[in-house]
Design a protein that fits this description.
- There is one protein chain.
- The chain is an alpha+beta fold and 344 residues long.
- The protein has two domains: 178 residues, Aldehyde Oxidoreductase, domain 4 (2-Layer Sandwich); 140 residues, Aldehyde Oxidoreductase, domain 4, CATH 3.30.365.10.
- Helices cover 30% and strands 22% of the residues.
- Strands 1-9-10-11 form a four-stranded mixed sheet, sandwiched between helices. It has a four-stranded mixed sheet with strand order 4-3-2-8.
- The longest helix is centred in the middle third of the chain and has 28 residues.
- The radius of gyration is 25 Å and the shape is elongated.
């Protein structure tokens, strides 16, 4: 909970650990009946998330569209999330935002795309650069109206002159169209070393069924619950939660390196290195909990890696419940499970 000293050093701010546990307990899955040779496991896990050097820029085009240049690539829906944050700040439809990703040549340095940092870090720079662009739009509108800057405000994609008997308004597109008369291109950029990445926590519930003749463990039902801070694009957050859970399921049940007595890797290909496929997992139910990260304008937390962590413990607990045997070694592949069943 808030105030706890994290294993990696800092004192935790607002986090959703208790909230995810409460959501898990309230979920129908938690108390649903089980069948023969089935067991249920519950586990929580977290990922600390990172920030780092990040840059982005925004350009108000003369046709009223908005160019958004990002240094990070899109591996989890960040392109849409960045466009949504810029659109929210400007007060215009998201469709007007045109993101360009991975353009590190025209921006300041960008740290890696990973560590659950893209939406958090790049989003921070997008919000700041968009707010700078809004200030420039206000200045251009003030010039066109021959008014003082403090008499111009920005509301819902429009500059509004609040002086005089009848307030005047001018849209983003109208201001952009006259950029050549007011000083040239309208743009802003932001480069910063982003800090304050809030950790993300999740609680997972899993039901498994163990074939006592082969040792095969099948996933019967799975629910992933996670604190996303603020889910900018909920459908993409759900996809990240499901994908991360599947990766964790693979680690728990099958994935391992096998070496021979000469130290050579014997399962270097996908034929032998067993990863989950669609037929291995049911539809994963997701529950998004939102405990905003106070260090981000929109409360964002990284979400991509957190759901990889809980499946390992949750599945191990579930298999132990199904077999009445405590397992302390992963993966729980059929040969390992069957050996433990055979030897008690």
């Amino acid at each position: 909970k808030e105030g706890t000293i994290a294993p990696y050093g800092p004192k935790l701010g607002p986090i959703g650990m208790i909230e995810t546990l409460e959501a898990a307990k309230a979920h129908p899955h938690y108390s649903a009946p089980l069948g023969p040779n089935q067991g249920r496991g519950v586990a929580s896990g977290f990922w600390f998330n990172i920030g780092g050097e990040t840059s982005s820029s925004i350009t108000i085009n003369e046709d009223g569209t908005v160019g958004l240049t990002l240094g990070t690539t899109d591996i989890g829906g960040s392109r849409a999330s960045m466009a949504m944050m810029a659109a929210e700040e400007l007060g215009v439809p998201m469709e007007l935002i045109k993101p360009v990703i991975g353009d590190t040549n025209s921006l300041g340095f960008n740290f890696l795309t990973g560590g659950s940092r893209a939406t958090f870090s790049t989003g921070m720079t997008v919000v700041r650069s968009t707010r700078e662009a809004i200030e420039e739009l206000r200045k251009r509108a003030a010039l066109l109206w021959e008014a003082d800057l403090d008499q111009v405000e920005w509301v819902d994609g429009h500059a509004r002159l609040i002086a005089g008997d009848e307030p005047k308004t001018m849209s983003l597109a109208q201001i952009a169209k006259q950029a050549g008369k007011t000083g040239g291109p309208i743009m802003a950029n932001c480069s910063m070393n982003v800090t304050g990445a809030g950790p993300s926590l999740g609680t997972h519930i899993v039901d498994v069924e163990v074939d006592t003749e082969t040792g095969k463990v099948s996933i019967v039902r799975y629910t992933a619950i996670q604190d996303a801070g603020k889910a900018i694009h909920p459908a993409y957050v759900e996809g990240q939660m499901q994908g991360g859970a599947v990766q964790g399921i693979g680690w728990a049940l099958n994935e391992e390196y096998i070496y021979n007595d000469k130290g050579q890797l014997e399962n270097a290909g996908f034929l032998d290195y067993r990863i989950p496929v669609c037929s291995d997992v049911p539809m994963i139910d997701t529950v998004i909990v939102e405990v905003p990260n106070p260090n981000h304008p929109y409360g964002v937390r990284g979400v991509g890696e957190t759901p990889i962590i809980p499946p390992l413990a949750a599945i191990s607990n579930a298999v132990s419940r199904a077999t009445n045997i405590r397992f302390n070694e992963l993966p729980l592949s059929p040969p390992k499970v069957l050996a433990r069943i055979m030897h008690g």
